[in-house]
Input
Amino acid sequence: MGAGEFLRELPLTFIPIFVAIDPFGLIPVVSSILQDHPPEERKTIVFRAVATALLSSIGFVAIGEGLFRVLGISVADFKVAGGVLLLVVAVVDLVRTTERKRWSPDPTVAVVPIGIPLIVGPALLTTLIALLESHGMFPTLLSLLANLALLALVFRISVGITSRTGTTLLLALSKLMSILLAAIGVHMIRAGLGLF
Output
């Protein structure tokens, strides 16, 4: 892959991963978790959460193709199933009105719920598999790393962001991300069925 082709592929992998992670939707939740911890502990929690997300994502990517072969699942099957799942996740997020659970001050929140399933949930895993098939390993993993680095920065300043902007604007941006995620889900279904 040449430099020009790589630069064209990068936005095509970065944007779907960004939408699947939905940092705008995570900010109020993570801010609520982090505000009960002292500043130094927040740094540790953010690092552990992002490290958990990275390792679990790479682990899933590593075994995904082999698992497909064992189960007799084609990439087209996964695209259709993943597209339906993304669509359902997006629709549920769009219609949900209740607030998420407030978590107690516990350092293990870095792994659960922040690392998994808030960052690495069905939407991200499905998106990663689809991007690997469409765009290859290197652009997909680089976009994943870039998104997680950006997310770590956002998490570090999330308490301040929430106090300055309030949750209404963040909620609106999160709903917009859900609409984009639904569109990506429909695109994956069409790709899996060969409908263009």
